């Protein structure tokens, strides 16, 4: 074990970033023209980084597996993006945003990074507006804000329920401008299969053209990994079907440490699994918890009758309902943070109170809000003697205005009308806080290889607050990486063009081809999905919302066994020389099968509960998370080993100079 | 539910394709259309056959990847819905479902149901942006107030997900709804006004080069658009284009 | 300039403008024709004016013919281009689910109307040219109504006439309103009122022409 140096600059917290920018090396414009940078992934982080690097003068190549950069999964973010603009005059500041993020992350993130994030947050909004991103506005023509969970100010900018798409299209437009200028060459429908190192430095990648199956070599002076998170290790998640860990994991194999893999965010309000055919889970915006009350039946017999279809939840009397969040957390009620709400739902369902046929669902009920809003509406519209039915009808209209699109989506997927019966929800894997370990410059432990956005271990610690993912992706891409990368590239101006005709590229291509051949030549017993689903079940049951030593150990064994079986028996039809979705999936699942084991090992190693990582052994008497700041205030960065159980741990100690470590309480 | 699927199979860009019929059993109403396709593919893989390739990713109706012509309609019979959000309860036991790729010269087939939509990217590259560099000191976001109605309209135009259903639905395989949505978004915002002349000319030129057909105002694009992008956008582009050329 | 004319949107404008020009012409034509029912003397008078006024003959008429040619040549060129934009057709295409038959088949209604125009030109225009410039008959300001009535004796011709105007109505139903969309009117306001007006016009004017034909057929 070694201690990692995060290279955080000295000085007061609020001055670190400015001072750092003032003192890092720069590359002069003429030299930038001779430097190539590869960016893998074109979501918010990758797209914005590629565009900005090209604006600065570097030659950029982008890679994405989709047919267009615009389809990266950043597009699916609904709620919004945080920025400490203080437009509402409610006392917001960089420090408050910094503090909320550190606290929300359960004190497991790096102070200097988080403060930098808060500092550049305002620039992001300025930049996006200048690009023509159509944020929501007030009647006065100025930008509108909404509030989000876990904070006391309104600092979230949004574009209806599709902020992610609008921000991504903004980054995509900046990228398009550079493509049009010839400064960015896009390689769409391409997948990075390996990182190539020359003399210890990242010098390029091996990629597969997904249309023709060709294996290509691409050289560059630096490689940026911005390929998103690995939530799909659970098979079922709110991630896109194609979201994968391959680029990050290939980089990890080549020497980049992988940090905090066990930090996973499980989002409490998703549409429950309806059957075995399910391919993905759909998120319902967190904002619904503002007006919905979460409950399960008080009596086990009622829950059973509901599951068997003999009783309808809506018919259950008020006194027979258990509003368990309001009961357990009277102060925050239904608005407790995501990790707390998710665990509470699981606790009730495990105890047998689940309300759909699989037993894994709780109610999110808007009936009280219909009445509450209806009453106000009736009074303000001069309808003093409205009956209850009239008020409910009015209230439904108010709710429809606020959440109509979400209700429609719910109805479309479940065929149930949430205006008439309570919604059913259940937690689902949503975001992964872990990822490639990076220093203050966003450089991984491989010189010349950088990581941005969800792909790095990020600024969110053990739990991410709502509307912070978009902020971090764009902060990294627009305002951090393009500058910090110069510190490294300043030493590369004499390197000259990177040749791909070297022994290292030969070897990497050979390895890649051998791996593909091995995947194509499995015994052909089970499909790729068979393995992916099995892995997902192990992960969900043993490394999911709550974890314990026994389960984690058996998960590691089971995953190792499944991996061995996969390599022996997987079935990939077709050929490697054409478009072949099964082969693509096989490569991704192969990496998930390694990551899963490391994930379990990391969770086993962390003998505390923090944020999204909940160990049953470490909880208070009331069942709340018990953090151990004395022994675990560090980042776990794992060095690659073919057998993930033997991966070597490196630590980055987290030093808190500006905040006091407290227990999060929502009671 | 038991179904008969007629699906376009084509091994590669140059290969000759044909419709192939597959019976499929065990389909559940709660499945999405793509989950139904997953089941078919799982069956094909287990039989050692090549599965049907199709584009899909987010399965939440926002990424714009999925694109199937279902019974002669892009994204199937349900309005304002992408293929991934279409559920099998919209079909009946015993139905025959025809599934084809988008058909357009500008969207050549890559394999089976997958088409190459890079022409859309190139139209956007031709001018769908505001030429502003990234810097830490762009003017404050609130220094450009924008009338709410206009901002909302620009937003609505910007909700296009680039799936290509407009082209697929149009009898002329025209891309005017797609192109005009982007032209409109910028034309409605002060940030976009400065480059409006070049933008509309360059984007329309690229659209024509790609080989899309001409708009004959049938309105099919708007009806089939999963995001309800309006025909007004095309009207606006037409007038913007005239303005740019006078 | 040539690049501009080649652009898809410029062509839309040309189709719309030439179409609107023909709409204006059709209105004017109808106004003269209806006098044959309500005021036969006026009809003769106006027809004579149209036939012998040099401005009409040597300026308006060539412009009209030019506009007509532009409209159908461009229409056919666009149809060819649009066909090329989808080289492989769908095996199943549910056009009725998202658009009207008329809007999708302007080429069919257009070509039928064009064929009718051929007959119409043969009937009236060729006849006029023969009278005036080949046979060089003396001017007779009262001959027109009689000639008109003669044409509508044959039930076959009246039948063709009726069918053609029904198809013209269909062509106009989509085309007239659509021309405003092409010229960007909808971007300014939603154009619902305008839309209704164009629909009314598209039915009434051809119906009026049919009425005139039937009137003369049965009153002969």
Automatic annotation (TrEMBL), chain A:
Keyword terms: Cell membrane, Electron transport, FAD, Flavoprotein, Membrane, Oxidoreductase, Transport
Top enzyme class: oxidoreductase
Entry-linked InterPro entries: FAD-dep_OxRdtase_2_FAD-bd, FAD/NAD-bd_sf, Fum_R/Succ_DH_flav-like_C_sf, Fum_Rdtase/Succ_DH_flav-like_C, SdhA/FrdA/AprA, Succ_DH/Fum_Rdt_flav_su, Succ_DH/fumarate_Rdtase_cat_sf
Needed cofactors: FAD
Localization terms from the record: Cell membrane
Primary location class: membrane
EC identifiers of the protein: 1.3.5.1
Domain Fumarate reductase/succinate dehydrogenase flavoprotein-like C-terminal positions: 532-666
GO cellular component: plasma membrane
GO molecular function annotations of the record: electron transfer activity; flavin adenine dinucleotide binding; succinate dehydrogenase (quinone) activity
Gene3D superfamilies assigned to the protein according to its UniProt record, in alphabetical order: FAD/NAD(P)-binding domain, Fumarate reductase/succinate dehydrogenase flavoprotein-like, C-terminal domain, Succinate dehydrogenase/fumarate reductase flavoprotein, catalytic domain
Residues at the catalytic site: 338 (proton acceptor)
Short name of any one Pfam family annotated for the protein: Succ_DH_flav_C
One biological process term in Gene Ontology: anaerobic respiration
FAD-dependent oxidoreductase 2 FAD-binding domain sequence ranges: 36-470
UniProt KW Glycosyltransferase keyword: no
Bilayer disposition of the protein: Peripheral membrane protein
Catalysed reaction equations from the record: a quinone + succinate = fumarate + a quinol
PANTHER family given in the database record: SUCCINATE DEHYDROGENASE 2 FLAVOPROTEIN SUBUNIT, SUCCINATE DEHYDROGENASE FLAVOPROTEIN SUBUNIT
Record family assignment: Belongs to the FAD-dependent oxidoreductase 2 family. FRD/SDH subfamily.
UniProt-recorded name of the protein: succinate dehydrogenase
Origin species: Nonlabens ulvanivorans (Persicivirga ulvanivorans)
Biological classification of the source: Bacteria, Pseudomonadati, Bacteroidota, Flavobacteriia, Flavobacteriales
TrEMBL record, chain B:
Domain 4Fe-4S ferredoxin-type: residue ranges: 151-181
GO function terms (MF aspect): 2 iron, 2 sulfur cluster binding; 4 iron, 4 sulfur cluster binding; electron transfer activity; metal ion binding; oxidoreductase activity
Any Pfam family: Fer2_3
UniProt superkingdom: Bacteria
GO terms for biological process, alphabetical: respiratory electron transport chain; tricarboxylic acid cycle
Family matches, as InterPro entries: 2Fe-2S_ferredoxin-like_sf, 2Fe2S_fd_BS, 4Fe4S_Fe-S-bd, Beta-grasp_dom_sf, Helical_ferredxn, SDH/FRD_Iron-Sulfur, Succ_DH/fum_Rdtase_Fe-S, Succ_DH/fum_Rdtase_N
Family, similarity comment: Belongs to the succinate dehydrogenase/fumarate reductase iron-sulfur protein family.
Entry cofactors: [2Fe-2S] cluster; [4Fe-4S] cluster; [3Fe-4S] cluster
Gene3D superfamilies in the record: 3.10.20.30, Alpha-helical ferredoxin
Keywords noted in UniProt: 2Fe-2S, 4Fe-4S, Iron, Iron-sulfur, Metal-binding, Oxidoreductase
Presence of keyword 4Fe-4S: yes
Name of the protein described by the UniProt record: Fumarate reductase
TrEMBL record, chain C:
Signal peptide: none
Keyword Ubl conjugation: no
Keywords assigned by UniProt, alphabetized: Membrane, Transmembrane, Transmembrane helix
Cellular component terms per the entry's GO annotation: membrane
Keyword Transmembrane helix: yes
Organism: Nonlabens ulvanivorans
Top-rank lineage group of the source organism: Bacteria
Bilayer-crossing regions: 12-39, 59-80, 101-122, 158-176, 197-218
Lineage, highest ranks first: Bacteria, Pseudomonadati, Bacteroidota, Flavobacteriia, Flavobacteriales
Name of the protein this chain belongs to: Succinate dehydrogenase
């Amino acid at each position: 074990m070694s201690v990692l140096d995060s290279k955080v600059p000295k000085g007061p917290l609020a001055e670190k970033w400015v001072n750092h920018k003032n003192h890092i090396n720069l590359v002069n414009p003429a030299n930038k023209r001779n430097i190539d940078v590869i960016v893998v992934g074109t979501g918010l982080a990758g797209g914005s980084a590629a565009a900005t690097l090209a604006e600065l003068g570097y030659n950029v190549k982008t890679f994405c597996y989709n047919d267009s950069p615009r389809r990266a999964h950043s597009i699916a973010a609904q709620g919004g993006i945080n920025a400490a603009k203080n437009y509402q005059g409610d006392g917001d500041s960089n420090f408050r945003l910094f503090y909320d993020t550190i606290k929300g992350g359960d004190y497991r993130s790096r102070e200097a990074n988080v403060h930098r994030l808060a500092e550049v947050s305002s620039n992001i909004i300025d930049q996006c507006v200048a690009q023509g991103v159509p944020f929501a506005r007030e009647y006065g023509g100025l930008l509108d804000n909404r509030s989000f969970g876990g904070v006391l100010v309104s600092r979230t900018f949004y574009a209806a329920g599709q902020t992610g798409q609008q921000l991504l299209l903004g980054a995509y437009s900046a990228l398009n401008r550079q493509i049009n200028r010839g400064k960015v060459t896009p390689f769409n429908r391409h997948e990075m299969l390996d990182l190539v190192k020359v003399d210890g430095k990242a010098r390029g990648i091996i990629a597969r053209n997904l249309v023709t199956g060709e294996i290509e070599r691409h050289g560059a002076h630096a490689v940026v990994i911005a390929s998103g998170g690995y939530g799909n290790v659970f098979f079922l998640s709110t991630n896109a079907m194609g979201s994968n860990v391959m680029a990050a994991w290939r980089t990890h194999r080549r020497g980049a440490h992988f940090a905090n893999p066990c930090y996973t965010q499980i989002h409490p309000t998703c549409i429950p699994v309806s059957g075995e055919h399910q391919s993905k889970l759909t998120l319902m915006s967190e904002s619904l918890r503002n007006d919905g009350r979460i409950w399960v039946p008080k009596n086990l017999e009622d829950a059973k009758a509901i599951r068997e279809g003999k009783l309808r939840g809506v018919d259950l009397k008020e006194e027979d309902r258990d509003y368990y969040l309001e009961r357990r957390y009277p102060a925050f009620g239904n608005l407790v943070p995501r990790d707390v709400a998710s665990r509470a739902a699981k606790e009730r369902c495990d105890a047998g109170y689940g309300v759909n046929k699989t037993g894994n669902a709780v109610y999110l009920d808007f009936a009280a809000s219909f009445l509450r809003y209806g009453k106000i509406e009736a009074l303000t519209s001069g309808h003093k003697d409205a009956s209850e039915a009239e008020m409910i009808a009015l209230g439904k209209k108010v709710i429809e205005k606020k959440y109509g699109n979400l209700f429609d989506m719910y109805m479309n997927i479940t065929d149930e009308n949430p205006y008439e019966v309570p919604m059913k929800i259940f937690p689902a894997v949503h975001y992964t806080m872990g990822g490639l370990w990076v220093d203050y410059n966003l450089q991984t432990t491989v010189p010349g290889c950088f990581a941005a956005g969800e792909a790095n271990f990020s600024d969110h610690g053990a739990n991410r607050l709502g509307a912070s993912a978009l902020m971090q992706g764009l902060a990294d891409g627009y305002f951090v990486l393009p500058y910090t990368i110069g510190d490294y590239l300043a030493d590369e101006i004499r390197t000259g063009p990177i040749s791909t005709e070297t022994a290292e590229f030969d070897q990497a291509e050979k390895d890649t081809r051998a791996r593909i051949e091995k995947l194509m030549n499995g015994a052909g017993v089970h499909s790729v999905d068979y393995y992916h689903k099995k892995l997902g079940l192990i992960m969900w049951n043993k490394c999911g919302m709550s974890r314990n030593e026994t389960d984690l150990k058996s998960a590691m064994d089971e995953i190792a066994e499944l991996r061995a079986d996969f390599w022996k028996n997987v079935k990939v039809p077709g050929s490697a020389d054409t478009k072949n979705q099964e082969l693509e999936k096989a490569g991704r699942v192969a990496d998930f099968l390694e990551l899963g084991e490391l994930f379990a090992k990391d969770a086993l190693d962390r003998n505390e509960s923090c944020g999204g990582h909940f160990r049953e052994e470490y909880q208070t008497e009331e069942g709340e998370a018990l953090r151990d700041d004395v022994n675990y205030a560090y980042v776990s960065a794992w060095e690659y080993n073919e057998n993930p159980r033997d991966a070597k741990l490196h630590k980055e100690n987290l030093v808190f100079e500006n905040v006091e470590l407290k227990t999060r309480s929502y009671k | 539910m038991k179904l008969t699927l007629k699906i376009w199979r084509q091994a590669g860009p140059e290969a000759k394709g044909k419709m192939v019929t597959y019976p499929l059993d065990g389909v559940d109403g709660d499945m999405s259309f793509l989950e139904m396709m997953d089941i078919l593919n799982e069956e094909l893989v287990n039989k050692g056959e090549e599965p049907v390739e199709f584009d899909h990713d987010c399965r939440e109706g926002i990424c714009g990847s999925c694109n199937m012509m279902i019974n002669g309609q892009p994204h199937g019979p349900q309005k304002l819905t992408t293929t991934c959000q279409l559920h099998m309860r919209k079909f009946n036991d015993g139905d025959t479902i025809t599934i084809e790729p988008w058909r357009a010269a500008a969207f050549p087939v890559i394999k089976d149901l997958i088409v190459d939509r890079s022409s859309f990217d190139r139209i956007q590259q031709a001018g769908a942006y505001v030429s502003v560099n990234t810097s830490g000191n762009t003017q404050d976001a609130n220094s450009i107030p924008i009338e709410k109605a206009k901002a909302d309209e620009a937003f609505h135009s910007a909700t296009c997900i680039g799936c290509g259903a407009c082209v697929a639905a149009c009898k002329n395989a025209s891309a005017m709804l797609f192109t005009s949505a982007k032209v409109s978004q910028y034309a409605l915002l002060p940030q976009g006004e400065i480059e409006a002349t070049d933008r509309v000319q360059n984007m329309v030129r690229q659209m024509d080069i790609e080989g899309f057909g001409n708009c004959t105002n049938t309105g099919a694009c708007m009806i089939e658009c999963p995001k309800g992008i309006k025909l007004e956008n095309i009207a606006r582009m037409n007038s913007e284009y005239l303005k740019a050329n006078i | 300039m040539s690049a501009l004319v080649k652009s898809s949107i410029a062509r839309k404008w040309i189709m719309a403008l030439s179409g609107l020009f023909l709409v204006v012409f059709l209105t004017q034509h109808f106004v003269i024709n209806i006098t044959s029912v309500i005021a036969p003397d006026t009809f003769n008078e106006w027809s004579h004016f149209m036939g012998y006024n040099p401005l009409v003959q040597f300026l308006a008429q060539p412009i009209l013919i030019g506009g007509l040619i532009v409209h159908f040549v461009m229409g056919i060129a666009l149809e060819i281009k649009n066909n090329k934009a989808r080289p492989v057709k769908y095996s199943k295409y549910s056009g009725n689910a998202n658009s009207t038959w008329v809007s999708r088949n302007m080429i069919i209604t257009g070509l039928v109307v064009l064929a009718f125009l051929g007959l119409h030109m043969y009937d009236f225009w060729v006849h006029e040219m023969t009278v005036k410039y080949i046979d060089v008959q003396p001017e007779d300001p009262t001959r027109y109504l009689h000639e008109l009535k003669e044409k509508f004796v044959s039930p076959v011709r009246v039948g063709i006439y009726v069918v053609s105007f029904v198809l013209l109505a269909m062509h106009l139903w989509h085309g007239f309103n659509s021309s405003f969309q092409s010229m960007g009117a909808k971007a300014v306001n939603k154009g619902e009122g305008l839309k209704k007006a164009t629909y009314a016009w598209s039915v009434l004017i051809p119906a009026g022409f049919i009425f005139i034909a039937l009137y003369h057929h049965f009153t002969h």
